Amino acid sequence: MRLSELLGAEVVDEHGHTVGKVHDVRLVQEGPRPGGAGPGLRVEGLLVGRRALGARFGFGRGADRGPWLLKALLGSAGHDGRYLPWGRIRSIQARQIRITGTAGDLPRPEPLGEVPLHREQTEGSWRVRR
Amino acid sequence: MAQRLDAALELLDRQLVDKDGQLAGKVDDLELTDPGDNPDPPDVTAILTGPAALAGRLHTPVGRWLAKAAARLLAPGHQQPSRVPLDQVEAVGASIQLKVAAGQLDAGAGEARARRLIGGIPGAGDAAQ
Amino acid sequence: MRKLLEIALGVLTAIGGFVDIGDLVASTETGARFGLGLAWVVVVGVLGIIVYAEMAGRVASVSGRAVFDLVRERLGAGVGLLNLAASFFITLLTLAAEIGGVALSLQLATSVNYLLFVPIVGLLVWLVCWRVRFELMDNAVGLLGLALIVVAVAVWRAHPDWGAMLHSATHPVVPGTESHAAYWYFAIALLGSAMTPYEVFFFSSGAVEQRWTRSDLLVNRLNVYIGFPLGGLLALALMVAAALVLEPRGIDPSHLSQAALPTSLVLGKLGLALALLGFFACTSGAALETALSCGYSIAQYFGWPWGKLIKPARAPRFQLIVLVSIALGAGLVLTTLDPIKLTEYAIVLSAAALPLTYLPLLIVANDPAYLGDKVNSRLSNAIASAYLVVLVVASVATVPLMVVSKAGGG
Question: So what's the ipTM on this one?
Fold first, then answer.
């Protein structure tokens, strides 16, 4: 499977209501793999939002700044979306993801803080260096 | 504490840099294991790069067509995307640092082919000032 | 002292390199047909390119990354690809127009048909991009471009009625012989000729290759704030010259020779020679820049190695793209399509695509993740946003105006 199959997919709850579209996929570092291949990355959950263009096109990342004109047109900081843990997914078919429960009981995504400037992989674990 | 990163924000469209500092393409897509009926979440197995990988990213018909045209023009014969297995990644930051040289990557094939085409022209090996 | 020389060189080459075939054609044609009625557009265009070129230079200096590289990373592959496709196509069209311009300048100087010069010009452009010392050539043609000052001298020596000229420039009136649609069509064309997209890519890519840092920000600003307005003055001089000499005679410039006519009338053979040298130099410089920009845009989008300072074997796909682009550009000119018409289409389509080029740059220039504390000031944001609105309006109006005015002909 590819990441691009998840991005932009429509998320639908058990009542058939559209929760939104997948804007991003949260990955988590897992422990050192057997065979010493270094830590892997596993999907933990999906970030789902309503805006079609996603958080990227606006001024979401970093401080909330920019020309007011563009902010008004493109939407400003922050993610308006929800966090969907992988376990809540019932099925993935042809760009549509069906989940258990409703949109309402999805939590807000935990912010990862400012995008770190550098991460290093040493001795089997990623280290964040700011 | 386990580190987390958001794939689209921090991995996708980032520059790949090889061990010698050479540019080696961009992260065009990520290869995941197929969850199938397994409830466990998928693992990331490789970074995918190249125009063929890009075509999968674009969902609008125009974008898809453009990427496919680019794939045929710029990476002919390589309809499959180039893979960079995750264990070849050294660090993830402003750019993705790799442990290997670009030439050894599957992704290096495009540059190699272009080098064969123009390498014969005198002066290819000399830096202009 | 050495720093001062460097700055002087930068400013002088910015002045001499400002004008390209687009400015030559647009300024002369609008001067001949509308007098000074469109002079204000040159002022608007120059201010616009100053604001955005400074931004591009700052982005490159502080982040160490070139514009196309960052546009994709910041806005995603889809938007980036749309941006790339439009930008590449227009830069290629402009490259063809510049090659045509060089060939036409040579035709004017030697009376040999321009088509015969095209393959030679293409080959020489490619050679410089491939191997010959680029910096040397770029500086040389930039300085030679200063020969265009002769046009300003000719205007001065013609003793025009400055008061009347100022009045007609500040009170623009559409002449009876022209339609309003044609007036606005040429306004858009002039805007496109001043705010050329490739300028931004070339500028930022050069800054990255030369490893500009924060300490180079001042030099960057000097080049832009001093060099570009003076370069814009040269474009204005061309317009005034055409307004003074061609308009009263009802000459509708369809040949490059007519751009040189005013200067040769006032200053004779020497004036003509210098004007032709200026035309040759500025179109050559622009041909080099557009050829490289074709390579920069594609290579930076896909993340391939790029650069004119590294050996070609280390950036083979980039070099291949430059080579193919030059071949395509030269090929387009060899179809015997009128180079002047080709230039008009290039600048008008450039104008239509300007929002696609400048909006991503504006977004990137406001992102502290790339620029830290050097993000846009409120003032530059205010001006840049205002321009974006103007550019979007111009972009939307381009095709309708092209149709209604029959591409400026009617």
Answer: 0.89
